[in-house]
Amino acid sequence: MSDDSWAVAVDLQESTTPSLQVRFVKETNASPKTAENGGSRKSWNQADLAEQSLLNKLIRRSLVRNRNQVEVLQRDPASPLYSVKTFEELRLKPELLNGVYDMGFNRPSRIQENALPMMLAQPPQNLIAQSQSGTGKTAAFSLAMLSHVNLENKWTQCLCISPTYELALQIGQVIEQMGKFCPDVKLAYAIRGNRMERGTKLQEQIVVGTPGTILDWCTKHKLIDPKKITMFVLDEADVMIATQGHRDQSIRIHRLLTEKCQMLLFSATFEDSVWKFAERVVPDPNIIRLKREEETLDTIKQFYVICREKEDKFTSLCNLYGSLTIAQAMIFCRTRKMAAWLSVNLRLEGHQVALLSGEMTVEQRAAVIERFRNGKEKVLVTTNVCSRGIDVEQVSLVVNFDLPVGLDGKADNETYLHRIGRTGRFGRRGFAVNMVDGEKSMDIIHEIEMHFNRTITELDTSNLEEMESLIS
Ligand SMILES: Nc1ncnc2c1ncn2[C@@H]1O[C@H](COP(=O)(O)OP(=O)(O)OP(=O)(O)O)[C@@H](O)[C@H]1O
After folding, report:
1. What is the predicted pLDDT for the residue at 278?
2. What mean pLDDT, rounded, does the chain reach?
3. What's the rounded mean pLDDT across residues 43-72?
4. ipTM of predicted assembly, 2 dp
5. Of the residues 56, 63, 173, which should be mutated to test ligand 1's pocket, given the most ligand atoms within 8 Å of the CB?
6. Per-residue 3-state assignment (H helix, E strand, C coil) for the chain
7. Ligand 1 touching residue 56 (CB < 6 A)
8. Rounded to the nearest whole angstrom, what is the distance from the C-alpha of residue 182 to the centroid of ligand 1?
9. Is residue 268 lining ligand 1, measured as CB closer than 6 Å?
10. pLDDT higher than 70, residue 39
11. Ligand 1 centroid distance, CA of 231 (Å)
12. Atom of ligand 1 nearest to the CA of 53
């Protein structure tokens, strides 16, 4: 964990939950401090993960393409392995196929190629699928649920649980969009504030919601008969299990289901804890995994600049920026306070600056990122955690105004790579400049050099000629 995770923990507690409007919601609760969305101090980690996931979804414009091979582990290795290259091969209902094309999907994503035939197979098969955020998991299970629904049955057949209110709404939006030519398929949101009359059985064939509300709807309110659920989807398992309450509720829901129910579990990461949980809720699974594309420093020129204090760093930054033709730059600060100070001063110098700060709601952050992406501002000042998930593709200069340091005072190499690295695919060249303000930070630079086996060259920002020859 890097230093500024501290700040973010506090930021999260201060932040307010974004509120989205949705058809089913009659009453929304603006407070973030509910068990449902993990607002308590103990579970900030879950809130952090969930917020990150939501931010990624809000700012994502398209599929994250991946060139790695998909690993498939079949429950029955003897059975043929089907994968599809087109949506037609899935023999979907025409209305559903129209919905898929209407979303602009021309062909299945890498994970969908294997996951879709498995999810749609008869007899039903259980599946555990892991791939990084943005690779098409939500679209895949949304399609599977829409295809699974039997319109003759006027009861809930597909249940999908998601770790937070906002993430559940995001999934619901995908289902609504994909199912827009299937008017008879109905969806209900089991999220806080969506009060249903007790005892009346829901007719919506698909229910998406958070574990607490879904459990209530199955047990206390008896709106759903869990024995009639034939497809159970558990999304963002890694985020879900970061809160014990959610994990336990998910297991309790799972216990209410029958053995015949098809179980599908999705996760962006797969640590041991996720794996243990997955094995518990998904018996005899097929497993699909798609490794993340590695980030590299191969195409990045790295420099350091010796400075004294923050004012000196600021002058160096201005020299650097003023003398180079830079498309866009991202500047990382350790604390929110430093980021605010820097952005004010850069603005005073006439720069167009965007600031990403922890007290902003997720929607506000998404809007800032969107403006930056559209080139409305050329500089983005941020703390570390706020900026996770931003593609640095169009950013040619990354400045570590403060170096990434862990709580142990040592170099946080992972964060360093994350800030300045790129996947091989976006092999465009870039520059990284590290501000060094003393012996301690010089040691950090050496640690980073050793770790990545790359030289970080000194840069004198007052020497324009030298700078131009080095950064060209
Ligand atoms: N086959 C496809 N062709 C083109 N775009 C797609 C395809 N499948 C999904 N997408 C788009 O790619 C983006 C990411 O998809 P999706 O949200 O399903 O990924 P995800 O793996 O579920 O991400 P997360 O883990 O964040 O939930 C979305 O904008 C989605 O509309």
Report:
1. 94
2. 84
3. 76
4. 0.98
5. 63
6. CECHHHHHHHHHHHCCCCCCCCCCCCCCCCCCCCCCCCCCCCCHHHHHHHHHHHHHHHHCCCCCCCCCCEEEECCCCCCCCCCCCCCHHHCCCHHHHHHHHHCCCCCCCHHHHHHHHHHHCCCCCCEEEEECCCCCHHHHHHHHHHHHCCCCCCCCCEEEECCCHHHHHHHHHHHHHHCCCCCCCCEEEECCCCCCCCCCCCCCCEEEECHHHHHHHHCCCCCCCHHHCCEEEECCHHHHCCCHHHHHHHHHHHHHCCCCCEEEEEECCCCHHHHHHHHHHCCCCEEEEECCCCEECCCEEEEEEECCCHHHHHHHHHHHHHHCCCCCEEEEECCHHHHHHHHHHHHHCCCCEEEECCCCCHHHHHHHHHHHHCCCCCEEEEECHHHCCCCCCCCCEEEECCCCEECCCCECHHHHHHHHCEEHHHCCCEEEEEEECCHHHHHHHHHHHHHHCCCCEECCCCCHHHHHHHCC
7. yes
8. 20
9. yes
10. no
11. 21
12. 26
CA–CA gap between residue 114 and residue 84 (Å, rounded): 7
Q: In this structure, which residue's CA is closest to atom 29 in ligand 1?
A: 62
Over residues 169-195, the pLDDT tens digits come to 999 999 999 999 999 999 999 998 888
Task: Note the pTM of the prediction, 2 decimals.
Answer: 0.81
List, in order of start, the domains of the chain with CATH numbers: 10-52+63-290 (3.40.50.300), 300-471 (3.40.50.300)
The answer to whether the Cα torsion of 294, 8, 412, 439 is positive or negative is positive
Which pLDDT score is estimated for 291?
A: 87
Residue having the nearest C-alpha atom to atom 4 of ligand 1: 105
Q: What is the pLDDT of residues 231-274, one digit of tens each?
A: 999 999 998 988 888 999 999 999 999 999 999 999 998 888 89
Give the least confident one: 91-100, 139-148, 406-415.
406-415
Ligand 1 contact via 99 beta carbon (within 6 Å): no
Pocket test for ligand 1, best of 137, 238, 239 (most atoms within 8 A of CB): 137
**Which of ligand 1's atoms lies nearest the C-alpha of 131?**
21
Per-residue model confidence as pLDDT tens digits over 71-112: 999 888 877 778 999 999 999 999 999 999 999 999 999 999
